[in-house]
Amino acid sequence: MRKTRVRFAPSPTGPLHIGGVRTALYNYLYAKQHGGDFIIRIEDTDSARFVPGAEEYIIEALNWCGIIPDEGVDKNGKLVETISEGHPHAPYRQSQRRNIYRKYAEQLVEAGWAYYAFDSSEELNRLRSEDEAQGKTFIYNHETRMGLRNSLSLPHDEVKRLIEETTDWTIRFKMPENRLVEMDDLIRGHVEVNSSTLDDKVLWKRADELPTYHLANIVDDHLMEITEVIRGEEWLPSLPLHYLLYKAFGWEDTMPRFAHL
């Protein structure tokens, strides 16, 4: 039986709010109840929303609340950046782990679970506006992807050229068509979603060489051996994608249990 390992992984986009304290407290108490470890990880991959000083404020606020991590923060209240006996998965700041994520994104491409997309934001905004004018919602998925600029629709030589010569491309998850995704949540119970209702989410961005939340979250939870993911209910709609990412990587046997508060 694996040792209980849970994490609180805030984004440094501003002060820690009471909802974040609630989530951290649930994780902390769950770890203590089960004789496990409570880990702090900073998810700062959204560079556009980064707020200087927010990371330090979050750690100080948790310390003030008596929510002290077992791993990820040193005795001086600093996020750990170097591997040591008590912090075997350092660094715990995702922007310092950026070299890890691209290989996992490309692994998905090679396995047929993802693809390169070269559509500009202007092109996608135009498509969204055109659909909105017709009372529809544009979705990048199995119905539209072959009519867009990506490695599934373009010639191999063109794909190779775009990867080498441009920097505004992304790697998107190739959402399966018409697959029933069955999930079990410790709080919400059994949940079923048809994959055809979901879009091809961006996993990695060449522009800043950073992953999106979805890829970084799954990869880090796996590498850090997280056993339970306890987070706010706002993340419940992401659960089907996260289940499928664990399947795509072949990590189903070690997938954590999920609880959406």
Can you walk through the features of this model?
The protein is of the alpha/beta class. The chain folds into two domains: 5-97 and 212-260, HUPs (Rossmann fold, 3-Layer(aba) Sandwich); 100-205, Glutamyl-tRNA Synthetase, domain 3 (Alpha-Beta Complex). Helices cover 33% and strands 16% of the residues. A four-stranded antiparallel β-sheet has the order 3-4-7-8. A two-stranded parallel ribbon has the order 1-2. Strand 9 (228-231), helix 7 and strand 10 (257-260) form a beta-alpha-beta unit. The longest helix is centred in the N-terminal third of the chain and has 16 residues, at 18-33.
Any descriptors?
single chain, 261 residues, alpha/beta, Glutamyl-tRNA Synthetase, domain 3, 2 domains, two-stranded parallel ribbon
Structural class: alpha/beta
- Name the CATH superfamily assignment of the largest domain: HUPs
Distance between the termini: 25 Å
CATH topology of the largest domain: Rossmann fold
Order of helices and strands: EHEHHEHHEEEEEHEHE
Radius of gyration: 19 Å
Give, in spatial order, the strands making up the sheet with the most strands: 3-4-7-8
Class of the largest domain, according to the CATH hierarchy? Alpha Beta
Residue share in helices? 25-40%
CATH architecture classification of the largest domain: 3-Layer(aba) Sandwich
Average pLDDT score: 96
How many H/I helices?
A: 7
Name the shape in a single word.
globular
Counting structural domains, the number is 2
User: How many strands, which pairing sense, and closed or not: the largest β-sheet?
Assistant: 4 strands, antiparallel
